[in-house]
Amino acid sequence: MELILQQLAAKLKLVYQGDGDTPISGVASLKSATTGDLCFIQQRKYLDDLARSSCSAVIVPRDLACEVSGKALLVSANPQYDFVRAVDLLGVGRRSSSVGIHPTAQVAASARIGRDVSIGALTTIAEDVDIGAGTSIGSGVSIASSVRIGKRCLIHGRVTLEQAVVLGDRCILHPGVVIGCDGFGLVMHRKRWHKIPQLGGVRIGDDVEIGANTTVDRGALDDTVIEQGCKLDNQIQIAHNVHIGAHTAIAACVGIAGSAVIGRYCKISGAAVVLGHLSVVDNVTITAMSLVTKDIREPGVYSSGTPLMENGLWHRSNARYKSLEKLAQSVARLEKAKK
Fold first, then answer.
1. What pairs with residue 243 in β-bridges?
2. pLDDT tens for residues 314-324?
3. CB 3.0 to 4.6 Å from 233: which of 5, 73, 252, 254, for a disulfide?
4. Would you call 172 exposed, middle or buried from its count of C-beta atoms within 10 A (0-12, 13-18, 19+)?
5. 316: alpha, beta or left? (left if phi > 0; alpha if psi -120 to 50)
6. pTM of the full structure
7. Would the pLDDT of 207 be above 80?
8. How far apart are CA 2 and CA 56, in angstroms?
9. Domain residue limits, the chain
């Protein structure tokens, strides 16, 4: 779709500067942009890159608008967010799917399919499934009985939704997502592990996005819950009975153990681990590869682990860890002697 700059500005409710008839048909980075492309910058350090760019227009912060010359501008309080909105208005990268059920899909007679739903090839939908209007389901998807899917969801290929899964509106599930598989529940008896039945479900709120090959286990008795607006990256493990608060973002390869409770508006960086039965309050940031071993009761930024260093130095530092207790005792004796 092509819009001229003044049309795009009107739809975004932004002020524009320069030629309002500038045609905008695509988006790109500053480096790869050509005529007709829209870009954005957030910081002054990118002004030189912008001057060299071939883009036709750029979204800039208010404080930088007076420093840009030779480009048509959209002036924004949050350029990256308005760039995302512009991408949607221009229809760039929008997936097109034909409404209807592919001939190779298997849909149970008792399934309730809303208006304008698309169901891809080789997808299986079991009894008593409810799919909301405008939802698109890719190929090779498996949906077990009694699953509830909201309106305008996008479910990519090879997703598996097991029994007792409830999905809100406008959710996005990327390829390979598995929701509602059994949690890792075991009890030891007479030197053998015995499986604990996993009888709960999974409840996912509106506007949740879950990345490729992420797994969300069903609860043992109560449900696993992911509240509205959460964004999960690829290859995350959410164990049984975990509760994640609204608008929390979790990066790739994070593991959250059973019955942990994560607050609202938290940010958990890549490869971090939260141990089971812990609570994390709202507005907490956990940095990459951190291990959370106790409750976090105050908002803030938390880290653990040893930063990368040259290998020989790391070995020497590691060897000294064993001497820390002896060193602490020596310091304590010296302080006691001073008294």
1. 225, 261
2. 999 888 888 88
3. 252
4. middle
5. alpha
6. 0.90
7. yes
8. 13
9. 3-90, 100-302, 311-339
Is residue 12 within 8 A of residue 80, CB to CB? The reply is no
What confidence tens digit (pLDDT) does each residue in 16-53 have? 999 999 999 999 999 999 999 999 999 999 999 999 99
The residues with which 216 forms a beta bridge, in sequence order, are: 179, 238
Q: Which of 240, 247, 277, 315 is catalytic?
A: 240
Amino acid at 225: V
pLDDT value of position 97: 64
Is 277 among the residues known to form the active site?
A: no
Q: Which of the listed CATH numbers 3.30.300.350, 1.10.260.40, 2.160.10.10, 1.20.120.140 matches domain 100-302?
A: 2.160.10.10
As assigned by CATH, the class of the 3-90 domain is alpha beta
How far apart are alpha carbons 290 and 118 in whole angstroms?
Answer: 41
Contact present, 161 and 142 (Cβ < 8 Å): yes
List the one residue out of 212, 298, 289, 286 whose CA is nearest residue 248: 286
Residue 305: pLDDT band with limits 50, 70, 90: confident
Q: Give the CA diameter of the chain.
A: 87
Query: For residues 148 and 167, is the Cβ–Cβ distance under 8 A?
Result: yes
The Cα-based distances of 139 to 33, 93, 174, 325, 338 in angstroms read 34, 19, 12, 59, 75
DSSP 12-66: HT-EEES-TT-EE-EE--TTT--TTEEEE--SGGGHHHHHH---SEEEEEGGGGG
The first and second tokens of residue 244, run together, are 């994640």
Instruction: Provide the edge-to-edge strand list for the sheet that holds 300-302.
Output: 100-101, 118-119, 136-137, 154-155, 172-173, 209-210, 231-232, 249-250, 267-268, 284-286, 300-302
Q: Which residues face 226 on adjacent strands?
A: 204, 244
